[in-house]
Amino acid sequence: MPKAIYVINPNSNAAVTAELDAAVAPLRLAGGPEIRCVTLADGPPGVESQQDVDRAALAVHAFAQAHRDDAAAFVVACFSDPGLQLLRESVRVPALGISESGVLTALSMGQTFGVIAILPRSIPRHLRNWGAMGVTQRLAGEFAIGRGVSQLADREATLAAMCDAGRRLRDERGAQVLVMGCAGMAPFRGPLQEATGLPVVEPTQAAVAMALGRVQLGW
Asked: Is 147 exposed, middle or buried (0-12, 13-18, 19+ CB in 10 A)?
């Protein structure tokens, strides 16, 4: 069996996985590695707290160990990047997280980036990541829309809240690029970009694009 890039949704919400599958469809190339989006059924319903992150990290690691022989790369499709460093210690193929990849992509598109989070309690966790990455000086700001993962299914309300946050990041904080701070936001990249006039990074697309490049080039 040809090796695949595994896109791991570490929560148990299969609807989120379906949205991710649609988001990465343009990256499925003839002759390229298969891109498989999977749901971890034993994960939390949404990764919204540090407890969820820690639980998801172990589930991500277990999945990777079970598929280490047929994986070309792993992408952790959660904006807290649960288990990413553990994954990098334990597998020999590229392992990418959507938070890290999304921000690195944004930094190549503008001088400052703004992040749209789901919940206020997500922001301190994200700030720790930006500090570890050494990119806080280029962070314009981060605003939360006050909606959990399951509530993102209300598309009209979610998009309205995201557009409001995006405009505030643009007008009040000077963000030049927006990063969507949750894998469940994948369907909203186009409408958000149109509403704000700013480039918008969908982080799972960013991570899979990086993984695909590394696999194809043997990095």
From this structure: buried
The mean per-residue pLDDT over the stretch 82-106 comes to 95
- Residue 44: CB partners within 8 Å, gap ≥ 6? 10, 11, 12, 52, 55, 56
* Confidence at residue 73, expressed as pLDDT on a 0 to 100 scale: 97
Q: Average pLDDT in the 162-178 region? A: 98
Q: Which residue has the tokens 């990777």?
A: 64
Asked if 149 contacts 45 with a C-beta cutoff of 8 angstroms, the reply is yes
Whether the Cβ atoms of residue 188 and residue 180 lie closer than 8 Å to each other: yes
pTM of the model: 0.94
CA angle 13, 15, 18 (to 5 degrees): 120
**SS3 of 144, please?**
strand
Can you tell me the distance from the alpha carbon of 48 to that of 184, in angstroms, rounded to the nearest whole number? Answer: 12
Token pair listed for 140: 């314009």
What is d(CA 105, CA 6) in angstroms, rounded to the nearest whole number? 20
**Rounded CA separation 144/161 (Å):** 9
Beta carbons within 8 Å of 99's beta carbon, 6+ residues apart: 78, 79, 80, 81, 126, 129, 181, 203
Q: What is the mean pLDDT of residues 203-217?
A: 96
* Residue 147: alpha-carbon gap to chain centroid: 17
Domains annotated on the chain, with CATH:
4-97+204-217 (3.40.50.12500), 100-202 (3.40.50.12500)
The radius of gyration of the chain from alpha carbons, rounded to an integer in Å, stands at 16
Q: Is 180 helix (H, G, I), strand (E, B) or coil?
A: strand
Measure CA 160 to chain center.
Answer: 20
